[in-house]
Write a structure and sequence with these properties.
This protein is mainly alpha-helical. The chain folds into two domains: 85 residues, no CATH class; 30 residues, no CATH class. The protein is 53% helix and 5% strand. It has a two-stranded antiparallel ribbon. A hairpin with a 6-residue loop joins strand 1 and strand 2. The two termini are 28 Å apart. The mean pLDDT is 79.
């Protein structure tokens, strides 16, 4: 059952690629032909669409931005806990102590606050 943890990231990655491909095709259309009957663009090559030069240029930008946003969320949550004075350092398990004391000189949490339950 634990192997289903890979489903959300795979789904997110496929949505990311689809959005990047669609936006890149708007800027640099490749892999299509105009139908003489309907006068609409029809896809001729999915490989050309997914390897569009604009997609390949945008991919590292989006990848880096996603890690930057995730890091900012972690830093914001940590800053909020530091500002609020939250001292629950147990991380949901018994026996874990705070790895450091912040701010320096602050007292270590008592046994009652460092252990859940």
């Amino acid at each position: 059952m634990y192997h289903f943890i890979f489903v959300p990231p795979a789904l997110g990655l496929s949505i990311l690629v689809a959005i990047l491909a669609a936006n890149s095709w708007m800027q640099h259309p490749v892999g299509y032909k105009i139908s003489s009957v309907t006068h609409r663009a029809e896809l001729t090559s999915i490989v050309k669409l997914l390897t569009n030069s604009t997609v390949l240029a945008a991919w590292p930008h989006v990848w880096f931005a996603s890690f930057l946003i995730a890091g900012a969320v972690v830093v914001a949550a940590s800053a909020w806990h530091l500002a609020a004075g939250t001292r629950n350092c147990s991380a949901g398990r018994r026996g874990w102590a705070c790895p450091s004391r912040w701010p320096p000189g602050s007292p270590r949490p008592s046994a009652a606050t460092s252990r859940p339950g």
